[in-house]
Write a structure and sequence with these properties.
This protein is of the alpha/beta class and 489 residues long. The protein is built from 15 helices and 11 strands. It is 37% helix and 12% strand. The longest helix has 23 residues, at 374-396. The chain is globular. It binds glutamine (GLN).
Length: 489
């Protein structure tokens, strides 16, 4: 391949789109460049569970026709990687679980319909923690994913494959899902941008449900602009999702019209406590001083109920999961284990099909919802959730946005946290509140420690997704940018 084509993988999604529309490159050249790179390098990264080569090439032809007829939008012809819990018609969707091995959805998720309509060829389905339960992509039933910045370390999770594929330049852009941080945390650990929209702005129709009141689909990219453009494609009101907000798609019109001057930024005090690594704190603090030099008015703000976020989340999310995952019974989806009689077949299918983490969550959730414990656990957790939402809203009365580190630690060695059931769970400390309150959140790189990326999280009030992206764009202009993405050899 000529170096002109090899360097295509270095371009942002928006730049690729521009080159495609100006006919400097063809859709076929772009898709082929990424597929070739995946074939050459993904064995080391493990970011894809399935490739979609053939269908991807025919979608590429259709994208070229759209461009040739002058109808291509900003991302037309830009290939995309999709998390494996988002239903893709005709393409295996396993949620990285054995219980869905071989399941081929007969329909597209609403976001996938939108992606196809805008001419984005789907490269394949990305690796993840089983049913999105985890923070390291190590609970995948199929393979471990590696962080492109250090192959011995985790890309984070649960959307680890979506984050790693973008950081490794195996895909220019991708989709993930976020229930307690699964877009923002892997984005942080891989140095990419990751955005969770306001609950209800992006349709969940066709997203395999984990915890329905918390789940939200969102984009990963190498820049805020890329992520904003993909958000525009996939968001908007959807009558197929009863929790969809009656708002239009996220607009990118004013993305570049913001300014940090006079912007009120609150640093969430609780996120810089003893649980946060010193190295993360110092990178975060240097970034904060750059923001303040650029004119942002920065103050600390305390939101005490955030200290109960992890415990509350680990009641609510498993409770909802225990109900959502009841449908995987060997009758309707995936493989069936032989057992004597119907009940034993269901029992055996579930015993063999679900991994350890998923089973643990189902048991915790069933327990929390059981008659004798419902009030003590589930109802109390909902009360704390309401309190947290109220305290966050109150904090927003004094600030335009709130910030924190995204993850209390940088990427960790694979295997190092798996044996400690709590160690991985506390990693969600900073990200859980946004899901609890349904507010939008974004993570972007704010520096490095020992060669590993550190992410900053920005939060905004409900439905202020445009404002959040505008601020993130200003932050990105001010913070140090990644000059070289990891070299895969
Ligand atoms: N790490 C969290 C969990 O395991 C969040 C996962 C997610 O956002 N899907 O539940």
């Amino acid at each position: 391949m000529s170096s002109h084509l090899e360097s295509l993988v270095d371009l942002s999604a928006v730049d690729l789109g521009r080159k495609l529309r100006s006919k400097e490159v063809s859709c076929q050249e772009v898709t082929t460049a990424f597929l070739d790179r995946i074939n050459a390098h993904d064995a080391k990264i493990g970011s894809f569970l399935a490739l979609n080569q053939e269908e991807c090439m025919s979608a590429t032809k259709e994208a070229q026709q759209l461009i040739d007829s002058g109808e291509g939008g900003a991302l037309c012809g830009v290939p995309i990687a999709v998390k494996d819990n988002i239903s893709t018609k005709g393409l295996e969707t396993t949620c990285a679980s054995k219980i869905l091995k071989g399941y081929i959805p007969p329909f597209d998720a609403t976001v996938i319909k939108a992606v196809r309509r805008s001419g984005m060829p789907i490269l394949g389905k990305t690796n993840m923690d089983e049913f999105a339960m985890g923070a390291s992509t190590e609970t995948s039933a199929y393979k471990i994913a590696h962080n492109p910045w250090d192959l011995e370390r985790s890309p984070g999770g649960s959307s680890g494959g979506s984050a790693a594929s973008v950081a490794a330049r195996l895909a220019p852009i991708s989709l993930g899902s976020d229930t307690g941080g699964s877009i923002r945390q892997p984005a942080s650990l891989c140095g990419t941008v990751g955005f969770k929209p306001t609950y209800g702005r992006c349709s969940r129709y066709g997203l395999v449900a984990f915890a329905s009141s918390l789940d939200q689909i969102g984009p990963f990219g190498r820049s805020v602009e890329d992520v904003a453009e993909l958000a525009q494609v996939v968001t908007g009101y959807d009558p197929m999702d009863c929790t969809s907000r009656e708002l239009g798609p996220i607009s990118t019109k004013d993305l570049k019209n913001g300014s940090l001057k006079g912007t009120k930024v609150g640093i969430i005090k609780e996120t810089l406590g003893e649980g946060t690594d010193g190295s993360v704190k110092s990178v975060f603090e240097s970034a904060v001083s750059l923001l303040s030099q650029a004119g942002a008015q920065i103050e600390e703000v305390s939101i005490p109920s955030l200290n109960y976020g992890v415990t509350t989340y680990y009641i609510i999310a498993p409770a909802e999961a225990s109900s959502n995952l009841a449908r995987f019974d060997g009758i309707r989806y995936g493989p069936r284990s032989e057992g004597s009689g119907h009940v034993h077949m269901v029992e055996k299918t579930r015993a063999e099909g679900f991994g350890k983490e998923v089973k643990t969550r189902i048991m915790i959730g069933t327990y929390a919802l059981s008659a004798g414990y419902y009030d003590a656990f589930y109802v109390r957790a909902q009360t704390v959730r309401a309190k947290m939402t109220q305290e966050l809203n109150q904090a927003f009365s004094g600030f335009d946005v709130l910030i924190s580190p995204t993850s209390p630690i940088p990427s960790f060695k694979l295997g190092s946290l798996m044996d400690d059931p709590l160690a991985l769970k506390v990693l969600d400390f900073c990200t859980i509140p946004a899901n609890m309150a349904g507010i939008p959140g974004i993570s972007l790189n704010c520096g490095f420690t020992s060669g590993l990326p550190v992410g900053m999280q920005i939060l905004a009030p409900q439905c202020q997704d445009e404002k959040l992206l505008q601020m993130a764009y200003c932050f990105e202009q001010t913070l140090p940018t990644i000059l070289a993405w990891p070299d895969l050899g």
